[in-house]
């Protein structure tokens, strides 16, 4: 099958995987599609709580039509035993698939290549795409295994001149309705959302998701503070303590220039969302403070690369990913 088709079907599987996030957490959200002669016979994504896995759902959907078909799955099928269900590598091997296309090899040492080997031993042709757009969708899984911490997204809503508030402290609302809706969509994809203690005390933020149909996906609430937090919140005293956030694979950092600076200085930001409003504040509160870059060389060494840029109403969103 041509590589262009592989990329197209993998993109469709990745779109399905988005449905699993964050409901499948702390398990990775995976998508799977079974295709034969250009026709989809089965599809699935990781169910709430992590089971059944995407491959099991897609195979159950396809039934006998899976024989001789191609499976597109965003993550290498698991190879380890679990009391919650069979290894997907075994299920896929037994289904008689002619070909399996994998978006990303699994860094989990319990699978890490052994899932692919099991499929090849069963006679399936296996293609590993190493497809970067999809790997971003499993970044929380990878960060947990490689760094023992969540994948961190920092959100900044600012003016054209990089301010998050006027000189008098007024900040609501710098960006428009479309940007705020997009921000709530990002919240719905996170396991937890964090603000600084100053933001918590000054604004008493709800940190919920206010999009119709997604209210139930409001993330856990965390504050970076040495003080007390309201009931239902969790406090950490330093950015490094995000390693102690149990079950959190995707963390969104929202509140305060001091908090943003602390995470940037600690080099704990993997992804940066900058919402820019078409307004100049002049003399307002800067979005970030000193993060330890004394030279341009040090600043460029951060390795941020633009992943996306789009217009949201009258605002502009820029998405940067750390390499």
TrEMBL record:
Presence of keyword Zinc: yes
InterPro entries: CMP_dCMP_dom (IPR002125), Cytidine_deaminase-like (IPR016193), DHFR-like_dom_sf (IPR024072), Eubact_RibD (IPR004794), RibDG_C (IPR002734), Riboflavin_Biosynth_HTPR (IPR050765)
Catalytic activity: 5-amino-6-(5-phospho-D-ribitylamino)uracil + NADP(+) = 5-amino-6-(5-phospho-D-ribosylamino)uracil + NADPH + H(+); 2,5-diamino-6-hydroxy-4-(5-phosphoribosylamino)-pyrimidine + H2O + H(+) = 5-amino-6-(5-phospho-D-ribosylamino)uracil + NH4(+)
Pathway: Cofactor biosynthesis; riboflavin biosynthesis; 5-amino-6-(D-ribitylamino)uracil from GTP: step 3/4; Cofactor biosynthesis; riboflavin biosynthesis; 5-amino-6-(D-ribitylamino)uracil from GTP: step 2/4
Cofactors demanded by this protein: Zn(2+)
PROSITE patterns hit by this protein: CYT_DCMP_DEAMINASES_2
Domain CMP/dCMP-type deaminase, first and last residues per copy: 4-127
EC number(s) from the headed UniProt entry: 3.5.4.26, 1.1.1.193
Cofactor note: Binds 1 zinc ion.
Residues that span the membrane, as ranges: none
Keywords linked to the UniProt accession: Hydrolase, Metal-binding, Multifunctional enzyme, NADP, Oxidoreductase, Riboflavin biosynthesis, Zinc
Biological function: Converts 2,5-diamino-6-(ribosylamino)-4(3h)-pyrimidinone 5'-phosphate into 5-amino-6-(ribosylamino)-2,4(1h,3h)-pyrimidinedione 5'-phosphate.
Stated family: In the N-terminal section; belongs to the cytidine and deoxycytidylate deaminase family. In the C-terminal section; belongs to the HTP reductase family.
Protein name per UniProt: Riboflavin biosynthesis protein RibD
Species: Erythrobacter westpacificensis
Highest classification ranks of the organism: Bacteria, Pseudomonadati, Pseudomonadota, Alphaproteobacteria, Sphingomonadales
Gene: ribD
């Amino acid at each position: 099958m041509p590589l262009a088709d592989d990329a197209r079907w993998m993109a469709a599987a990745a779109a399905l995987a988005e449905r699993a996030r964050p409901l499948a957490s702390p398990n990775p959200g995976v998508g799977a599609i079974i295709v034969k002669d250009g026709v989809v016979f089965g599809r699935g994504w990781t169910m709430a709580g992590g089971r059944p896995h995407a491959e099991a759902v897609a195979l159950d959907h396809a039934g006998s039509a899976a024989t001789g078909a191609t499976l597109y799955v965003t993550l290498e099928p698991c190879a380890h035993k679990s009391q919650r269900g069979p290894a997907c590598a075994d299920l896929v091997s037994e289904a008689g698939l002619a070909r399996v296309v994998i978006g990303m090899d699994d860094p989990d040492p319990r699978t890490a290549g052994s899932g692919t080997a099991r499929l090849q031993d069963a006679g399936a042709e296996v293609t590993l795409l190493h497809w970067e757009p999809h790997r971003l969708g499993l970044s929380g899984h990878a960060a947990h295994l490689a760094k023992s911490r969540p994948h961190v997204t920092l959100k900044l809503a600012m003016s054209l001149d990089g301010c998050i508030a006027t000189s008098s402290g007024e900040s609501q609302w710098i960006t428009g309705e479309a940007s705020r809706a997009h921000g709530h969509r990002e919240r719905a994809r996170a396991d937890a959302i964090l603000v600084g203690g100053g933001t918590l005390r000054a604004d008493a933020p709800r940190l919920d998701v206010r999009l119709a149909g997604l209210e139930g996906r409001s993330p856990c609430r965390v504050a970076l503070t040495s003080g007390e937090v309201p009931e239902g919140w969790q406090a950490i005293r330093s950015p490094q303590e995000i390693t102690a956030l149990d079950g959190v694979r995707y963390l969104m950092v929202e509140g305060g220039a001091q908090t943003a600076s602390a995470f940037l200085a600690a080099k704990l930001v993997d992804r940066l969302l900058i919402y820019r409003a078409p307004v100049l504040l002049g003399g307002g509160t800067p979005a970030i403070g000193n993060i330890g870059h004394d030279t341009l060389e040090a600043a460029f060494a951060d390795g941020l690369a633009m992943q996306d840029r789009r217009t949201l109403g009258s605002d502009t969103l820029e998405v940067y990913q750390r390499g």
